[in-house]
Write a structure and sequence with these properties.
alpha/beta; Rossmann fold; Heat Shock Protein 90; 2 domains; five-stranded mixed β-sheet; 12 strands; 46% helix
């Protein structure tokens, strides 16, 4: 398959030699170099010949509905079975709006009456059909990828975490003192990871079905308190001062994990006794939160870079997923996140989230 900005290879299935010559003439005479530099045309007279053709080398199929083997939409049905990944543009000698809509519903990218053809319109229709088809294939591939990752979360991660949790629960019942506390920590963290995995699976499932999670009213103070508890469970010596109350933002159930990742990032890089101060201001459209710590801070040159996938600080034991996840989720809420220097010289993560009315 060629690059549509330089060359396009088109397969024409047309049993009328005169109509085939007319299509070739239109493409040869089209002033459409702004759309595609060169269009190559291969003419076949039947769908049977298509079965013997190397379809992968073509970018689009021009299809006449009146062929020796079949006529009307039956021809289109047969063609879609033969060329599943090739955009099909129907050519017809009749003006029939009902049939044109039927063709689109059954998989055609476009429907052109032969009497309306000219070079520019034909080249433009081919170009747009190819672009749309590639976009659709990309969306299908992404949906397949999300379904695959969802399956991994279900069968590998969730199953494994449930085993870990069960063993931790068993140990907690049979140990005393510090060992019992360690086992209970395993259970608590297993519960957190299982819960997060289920939430991510829900997001992946929604996106794979071409939808979006519905935004809800979230009590920001309660969400921040829950996220702070998670940080304290990892490092009891850390201090989280949450000054945010009586504020609501529009987000989904993963918002607690967004802030949980920010607090845990501060603990990891600022030390077990790090102090985190959370404040917020309310504007007409957005709530702006400032999560400031007294850790070593982040240099200006790295402040945008840390949100990229796989990025992590030197000596970090993490995967580089946490801040990438935070940035992705905040953007999905219609918000923004950036980093400044805190008053104590540490890092201040500034999160802008849409208000609810």
């Amino acid at each position: 398959m060629s690059d549509t900005t330089s060359r396009m290879d088109v397969l024409l299935v047309e049993d009328n030699p005169g109509d085939a010559k007319l299509v070739a003439h239109h493409l040869d005479s089209s002033d459409s170099t702004h759309l595609v530099d060169d269009i190559g045309l291969t003419h076949l007279e039947s769908l049977g010949a298509v079965e013997e053709t190397e379809i992968d080398r073509y970018d689009a199929l021009l299809l006449d509905l009146g062929l020796p083997e079949s006529t009307g939409l039956e021809t289109l049905d047969r063609a879609t079975e033969l060329v599943t990944d090739l955009p099909i543009i129907v050519l017809t000698g009749m003006r029939d709006r009902q049939k044109s809509m039927g063709a689109i519903e059954r998989g055609a990218q476009d429907y052109l009456p032969k009497s309306d053809l000219d070079g520019d319109r034909l080249a433009r229709t081919l170009r747009y059909a190819v672009v749309r088809s590639r976009q659709q294939r990309t969306l299908r591939r992404r949906r397949d990828q999300m379904e695959f990752f969802n399956s991994i979360l279900q069968h590998d991660m969730l199953n494994g975490m449930n085993v870990i949790r069960a063993r931790g629960d068993l140990l907690a019942d049979n140990l005393d003192g510090d060992e019992r506390e360690y086992a209970e920590t395993i259970v608590d963290w297993s519960d957190d990871i299982i819960d997060l995995t289920e939430k991510v699976r829900s997001v992946l499932k929604t996106l794979s079905e071409d939808g979006m999670n519905e935004m809800q009213r979230r009590d920001l103070g309660a969400v921040l308190d829950a996220a702070a508890d998670r940080a304290r469970s990892k490092s009891p010596a850390c201090t989280v001062n949450n000054h945010v109350t009586d504020m609501e933002v529009a987000a989904d159930e993963l918002l607690e994990d967004v802030f949980g990742n920010l607090f845990l990032n501060a603990v990891e890089h600022g030390g077990d006794d790090v102090t985190i101060d959370v404040t917020a201001t309310v504007g007409d459209v957005f709530v702006t939160l400032r999560i400031a710590d007294d850790g070593p801070g982040i240099s200006p040159g790295r402040r945008r870079q840390v949100f990229e996938r796989g990025q992590k600080g030197s000596g970090s034991s993490g995967t580089g997923f946490g801040l990438y996840f935070v940035d992705s989720m905040v953007e999905s809420y219609g918000g923004r996140i950036w980093i400044e220097e805190s008053d104590s010289g540490g890092a201040a993560f500034v999160v802008e989230l849409p208000r609810t009315e």
